[in-house]
Write a structure and sequence with these properties.
- The complex is a heterodimer.
- By secondary structure, chain A is of the alpha/beta class.
- Chain A is built from 6 helices and 5 strands, in the order H-E-H-E-H-E-H-E-H-E-H.
- In chain A, helix 5 links the parallel strand 4 and strand 5.
- In chain A, helix 2 packs across helix 6 and helix 3 runs parallel beside helix 4.
- The mean pLDDT of chain A is about 80.
- Helix content of chain B is about 55%, strand content about 20%.
- In chain B, the strands form 4 sheets. In chain B, strands 10, 11, 12, 13, 14 and 15 form a 6-stranded antiparallel sheet that branches. Chain B has a 5-stranded antiparallel sheet with strand order 2-1-5-4-3, with helices on both faces.
- In chain B, helix 2 packs antiparallel against helix 8 and helix 15 packs antiparallel against helix 17.
- The longest helix of chain B has about 80 residues.
- The radius of gyration of chain B is 75 Å and the shape is elongated.
- The chains are: A alpha/beta, B alpha+beta.
- At the A-B interface, helix 2, helix 5 and helix 6 of A face helix 12, helix 13 and helix 14 of B.
């Protein structure tokens, strides 16, 4: 179902959200996956190690939601997100990073991310952010 | 059009006159000089002449003095005689007048006719009496003779005054008294003579004689004029009577004499008449002077003659001496010439240099031992032969040309090597380089050219060797310089590679920390968080869990900082503008320094190296500001134009002092001191500048950029 159509909330909760997790580190992937699983609607359909891989996966699986690290080799999270948004404008992207600064947050938001989550607070913030993003994709 | 403005030329006559004047003036000048020189030479004669003249003048003066004194004495004698004579005469006349009065006063019964008769007698005896009068004691005229006195009456007023005065004076003096000279209308001078007459000491009256001065005195002094003297009777300095123009004589003559006439209150001045004066003058002075002059000039003449004679003798002797000396001198010179010639010949022979002389026909006339050695010819073989024998074939024509040129020129000597290298030809046909000096000597129009030659084969060879070794040295120096440059380049390359490696290593470590360690910690944190959600027994386990979570968060934070400082996060991903803004804001918070960031919005992306270098420079410069500048404000500016990007970090701090700029103190925070900054900038082809003063420090770095590097994020 297309994400942009107005639907009752109860329906959204029930329909699993196809989610792609992207990070260059295995343990980070595990951590993000673990945190994302905190929200029951999330269905992880795949993982990627960098921006390029993420674009390939996205083209194949067409995920609804992409949770992606900013800092990655080959293609960073922001660049990958921009490309992804050009190809699939409806895809929701949440960027995560170990670092935090207003500039980084501004950059991420400005580039089209729906939300920014610090890695230190993944467990607490990511499920809530996913919830918020899904309920109101244009929160950005 | 050509217009000539010629100055007006003086006429020919003018020019001639001017020239003549100049010549005349010059001649006068020359003659005066000669004359003056002559005068100087005659100083002894002059001295003698001066002495003679002085002596003559002195003698003449003394004689004149004596002569004058003598004449004065004579005149004085005459004057005294005149005085005595005059005194006697005047006394007698006045006495007669007195007696006349006495007699008349006694005879009371006399009549005017008696008076007339007596007066007539008086007048006959004493010439010059114009009127004889009897005046009573009241000064009134009683009788007078002659009765009619036309001359005297005409001058009545003048005479009346004088009469009164004289009568009063006579009464006062109680003596016969002479009055002042008065002039009558006839022009004759008159004097009043009054004689008071007393009877029993009572004034009876006066006898008054009005006399014509010239007649009366002329009669009195008649005898004197026969002496040849002239004289004048003076009353108060005014002449009363003078013989022959006495009034014109103003006195002060040396030979005149003046004596008083007591009876009259007059004086008499006497001087010899011209005839007498001529008689009195002696000729002694003239005679003496003439004699002395004659003597003096003969003396002068003899002195002069003696001098001339002596000079002639001296000249004759000197002439004899000179001839003798000349002979000696000539002999000496001949001897010297002989010795010099012999010595010269000897020098010529033994001289190591080759000496060759040629005559104008280019035939060899002198060929010394040195030349024999140098050319390999014996002297007999070449003497009289043309000089071409000693020259390489190709040089013969030019040599003739040079010789002709040299012969025509003024220079007496010439070093050939100053002109070009000279070459000679040996007997065996070999050519050798030589250094030559040439001189020309003209004796009785016969010009001889002499060349002194020195073989420079060895010197040329030595020079060649020196040049070769010099070239070799140059080559080596160049090689060494090139090696050094290469080494330097390698060193710089190495330094650059080292920096690049360092950066690479830092990036790797930072990524490792970020991707692996930090991620693991994040995972661990999530796991612990999950554990917290499960039932954990309260008390110690829960607290341990909480501590673990806190420690892990702290570790992540530290790791993040370390990674962040090792390598700017996301510089490559998001570019300099993003990284700088992020870094500077963080730095501002940590250090408390307010930093103004001005980055051109169209900065775009630069090459990774340039961006990293710029970032590192900002990092280092801000670290320096924090450590040393003691300020809380700084400004970072990045400006880009078409060809370059310019980074400037400025602060208003205390500037870099010598203390802070020393290598020990400028401890680089990330291995980048000031020198490091400079080196980094140089490695990417930029320029670096640091200006520091008490008003602050400005670090400027500029990097060349091409349009191709500009890509926006």
């Amino acid at each position: 179902m297309p994400a942009g159509s107005p639907e009752p909330r109860t329906q959204i909760v029930r329909v699993p959200v196809r989610t792609l997790i992207v990070d260059d580190s295995e343990s980070a992937l595990a951590a993000i996956s673990s945190a994302a699983a905190g929200n029951p609607v999330v269905e992880i359909i795949g993982t990627a190690k960098n921006g390029c891989e993420a674009l390939e996966q996205a083209r194949r699986w067409q995920p609804k939601l992409v949770v992606m690290d900013v800092q990655m080799p080959k293609m960073n999270g922001v660049a990958a997100m921009e490309q992804l948004k050009r190809e699939f404008p409806d895809t929701l992207v949440i960027l995560v990073s170990l670092h935090d600064s207003p500039e980084l947050r501004f950059l991420c938001r400005h580039s089209g991310a729906c939300a920014f989550v610090r890695k230190t607070f993944l467990a607490q913030e990511l499920p809530r952010m996913i919830e918020a993003v899904l309920s109101n994709p244009n929160v950005n | 059009m050509h217009v000539a403005f010629a100055p007006t030329k003086p006429g020919r006559a003018q020019r001639f006159s001017f020239a003549l004047q100049t010549v005349l003036l010059w001649q006068v000048h020359v003659r005066l000089r000669l004359w003056w020189k002559g005068l100087l030479a005659l100083w002894a004669e002059f001295l003698l002449a001066a002495i003679v003249i002085c002596a003559i003048v002195a003698v003449w003066h003394i004689i004149q003095q004596h002569d004058r004194a003598h004449r004065h004495r004579m005149t004085m004698l005459a004057a005294t005689g005149i005085q005595a004579d005059f005194e006697a005469d005047i006394r007698e006349r006045m006495g007669a007048q007195g007696r006349f009065g006495q007699f008349w006063q006694i005879a009371n019964d006399s009549t005017p006719r008696d008076w007339d008769a007596s007066a007539k007698l008086y007048m006959d005896h004493y010439p010059g009496c114009l009127t004889l009068e009897w005046a009573d004691s009241e000064y009134r005229t009683r009788w007078t003779f002659p009765r009619s006195r036309p001359v005297i009456d005409d001058a009545a007023h003048t005479i009346a005054n004088e009469r009164r005065r004289v009568l009063e004076l006579a009464l006062q003096r109680r003596q016969p008294t002479l009055g002042r000279k008065i002039t009558l209308p006839t022009g004759a001078d008159a004097v009043l003579a009054a004689v008071p007459v007393f009877s029993d000491d009572q004034l009876a009256g006066f006898v008054l004689d009005i006399m014509d001065v010239s007649v009366a005195l002329g009669a009195m002094l008649k005898d004197v004029s026969e002496l040849g003297y002239e004289y004048a009777i003076l009353q108060d300095g005014e002449p009363v009577y003078s013989r022959r123009g006495g009034s014109q004589r103003l006195g002060n003559r040396a030979d005149e004499a003046e004596v008083p006439l007591r009876s009259a209150g007059w004086t008499v001045r006497v001087w010899p008449g011209s005839a007498l004066a001529a008689e009195m003058e002696s000729r002694l002075a003239e005679v003496l002077v003439a004699t002395m002059a004659a003597l003096g000039f003969s003396l002068l003449a003899s002195v002069r003659l003696a001098k001339v004679a002596r000079r002639q003798t001296e000249l004759a002797q000197a002439a004899k001496g000179e001839i003798a000396q000349e002979v000696v001198e000539r002999r000496r010179m001949e001897e010297a010439a002989r010795v010099s010639e012999a010595r010269f010949a000897g020098i010529l022979e033994i001289s190591a240099d080759a000496i060759v002389s040629v005559d104008p026909k280019q035939s060899i006339v002198l060929f010394n031992q040195g030349a024999e050695k140098l050319f390999g010819y014996r002297a007999e073989e070449v003497l009289g032969k043309p000089v071409d024998l000693l020259l390489p074939e190709n040089a013969r024509t030019s040599h003739r040309h040079y010789v002709a040129q040299f012969a025509a020129g003024d220079t007496p000597t010439m070093r050939m090597c100053d002109r070009r290298p000279v070459f000679g030809r040996r007997k065996d046909g070999t050519i050798f380089p030589a250094e030559a000096s040439v001189s020309k000597l003209a004796i009785e129009r016969q010009v001889t050219f002499t060349a002194i030659l020195r073989d420079t084969t060895e010197r040329v060879a030595a020079e060649e060797a020196l040049r070769r070794s010099h070239d070799e040295l140059d080559l080596r120096v160049n090689q060494r310089t090139a090696e050094l440059a290469t080494a330097n380049e390698s060193l710089r390359e190495l330094s650059g590679r080292m920096l690049a490696l360092q950066e690479e290593e830092r990036r790797r470590i930072a990524r490792e920390l970020h991707d692996s360690t930090a991620s693991n910690l994040v995972l661990a944190l999530i796991n612990l968080d999950n554990l917290q959600k499960v039932e954990v027994p309260a008390g110690q386990p829960a607290k341990d869990l909480e501590d673990g979570i806190r420690l892990i968060k702290q570790a992540i934070s530290e790791l993040r900082t370390a990674s962040y400082r090792l390598h700017p996060p996301m510089l490559e991903e998001f570019g300099l503008q993003f990284a700088l803004t992020w870094y500077i804001n963080g730095f501002s918070v940590r250090s408390g320094i307010h930093i103004d960031v001005k980055v051109d919005s169209d900065l775009g992306r630069l090459s990774n190296e340039v961006e990293l270098t710029m970032f590192r420079i900002v990092q280092e410069a801000l670290a320096n500001v924090h450590r040393h500048a003691h300020t809380n404000a700084a400004c970072v500016t990045v400006r880009r134009d078409s060809s370059s990007v310019r980074l400037e970090i400025a602060d208003q701090g205390s500037g870099i002092t010598s203390e802070t700029s020393t290598p020990e103190h400028s401890k680089p925070s990330l291995g980048v001191g000031i020198a490091g900054m400079r080196e980094r900038v140089r490695l990417v082809g930029g320029s670096f500048e640091l200006r520091s003063s008490a008003q602050g420090t400005i670090v400027t770095a500029a990097f060349p950029v091409g349009e191709a590097q500009s890509t926006t994020v």
